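Board notes (copied after class):
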Amino acid sequence: MSKKQILITLIIILIIFMVGFVLRVESTNLPGVPLDEKAYYQDQNGLPYMYEMDSYYNYRLTKNYLEHGHTGDTFINGTEWDFHSYAPSGVPMDYPPLIVYLTAFVYKFINLFASVPLLVVCFWIPAFVGPLAGIMTYFFVRRYTNNYGAAAAGILAVTAPLYLVRTVPGWFDTDMFNVFFPILVTWLFVEAVTAQKFKNQIILSLSAAFAMVLFALAWNGWQYQFYLLVIFTSIYILWRKIRGGNVKNCAYIISIYFVSTLLLVGIFTGFLNVINLFEEPQTLLKMLSSHGVWYPWPNVYVSVSELQKPSIWDVMSGVGPAFFGGILGILWILRVMINPKLKKRFLNRMTWFFYLMLIAWTLIGFVSFEEGSRFLILLISPLVISSGILIGLVINYLSLLKENHVLNIFQREGVIKIFKVVIILLVTVPAVFSVYESTCALQTGANDDLWDSALWINNNTQNNTIVIVEWGYGHLFSAIANRSVSFDGRTAYIETLSIRQFDGAYKFGSESPSSSREYWINHAFSTDNQTLSLGIFRMLTTSGDMGYITLDQYTKNTTQSVMILNSILGVDNETAKEILLTKYGLNEEQAENVLQYTHPSDSRPFVLVTSINTLGRGKAIFKFGEWDFNDVKEGNYTYSVGTFVINGTILNSTNKVVMNMKTRDITWNGSYPYSFILIKNGTMKEQRINNNSNFSVAVLMDVNKTVVIDKSLENSMFMKLWVENSNSTMFKPIYRKGTVTVWQYV
């Protein structure tokens, strides 16, 4: 490679990196937030709060690693344990640690020269790692086409809207690795297959295996790329064998790669991860079944937005221009591949092995949507590669114009170069501008009220206090309040399901952790029985899942166990024992075994955290909290939240509530409510309107919100604590900051 070529390569790398970096940095200005509100969404360092709440989980693990040398809180029987999550029992630490190791190294290095807080380092890491995927894409695509196509592929990679949004500063999560590593692993593997010397084949196969191990250390979903390479290559070998081709070298390569990957994954991540590789498909099938994994408990994962199946528009907008470019590229590449002359001239390095793998890779990306929109990121890699090769072909086709002696203008090299630059700009400029809308739509996961509430809990509660908060904020409070949380963003730890039967640390297998926690917390808020709500919270924060697990051993029927627990958790120990003995036929020993967990003599302190900004959470609370275990279906209740504006004397809300402010005449969808609740300046007034109606309407004047709720739920704990924010229950506010309230049983 000449000095000129090296210089061109360095310039292209710099352009790709800077395009990716600058676009990501733009998000730190909070472009979608009015100027006078920006400070509310910025932390003590003047930076936006993290966009993704999982970021605070990764921050906490990194902090643990720097302070203690391990990511968990302690060790139990040689197993790293995290007591901050899924309290009170905690969970074995199973998280892929590469993000922790990388951040700890960068933090240590930077602090050799300046004092930079760990949270700041965590904030900026994604903006530097994200653009590296574009550079890797550039090198991969350049193997098959020219610098123009390779550069375009790199820019399309760093500007893919979904990937860009998930790698902005403040999105400190494993998504930053999910384009870089699949491309690196696949590139090394393809190079191994196409290498001519056996020595190079071995080196590249081992390199691909090592890269796959790094991917396994980076993300729990690394198996997708492993399945792709192994299954596709095996089918390819079989196809070649049937056609009488030589498959010896290819068989050697896949064997070396397969064995090396399993061995290295076992050494560096634990051999349970190797078992998980073969057990994961079975778990996936169970997840996709009608009953799900935790039948008959509700499945909390259906409420996770990133695990919802994306629409075709979500796919197109998430991938960006590479969606159409990639699909067209696959078709155009085929057109060239089947023509020996064109192939020799324009795609001389392209092999049928890689082309067919590119198709399989793309198909795997589409199939992965079954698991949710987050896995859309797996489609970006093959489509940007295909798009880059397509653009390279278009650029190369321009050389044909020089052979056209009719149009003399194309005989000039300068004109051809201008056309090449124009084509690149036509592809990349729209990609760059399309992501601006995505960054404008970003909202920080936290705000001053949540942050200050977490700090207050840290400074004003006992160290063994458990925080019960909407699971989406669990990581924030476990990290900043430094308190254990009952439920957080890892929810039921579904990533560990496939290996629990092989890991003695999970004493109860799939029963704990499980989505049962979602039901009990939501039921404590959806009920109007205050003593039942208190009983549920006491059970969960003191003995966790042991109450229902123990009772299940006697009833052998989860539905019956839930019914029994709901009948005893709201009464005292003596009454509960009488119910167990006389109504449900448990013997003395069985009753005592259950009651030690449901009615603990020494309950652990806990606090509840609610936020008026998360009123939309009510839909999930009633959906799962009023779960029908007999028919195994969600509760069917009316619940709607809207934001209102007042024009003159008429209040209009986005959820179709209309109110005359002068006469107090109020309707929802044209119908009068059972009752009207007005909440203003901390006071509440309720007015009965239509006894035949089945819904009530609450108007929250201080926050411009309207809530429509089923008549049967208007006295629920959710309504009292979340909506009315009242002192009328057994729980009293011990701290209020703006939209957030911290409650404690008094």
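Comment from the instructor: The chain has three domains: 3-30+130-440, 515-604, 610-745. The radius of gyration is 29 Å.
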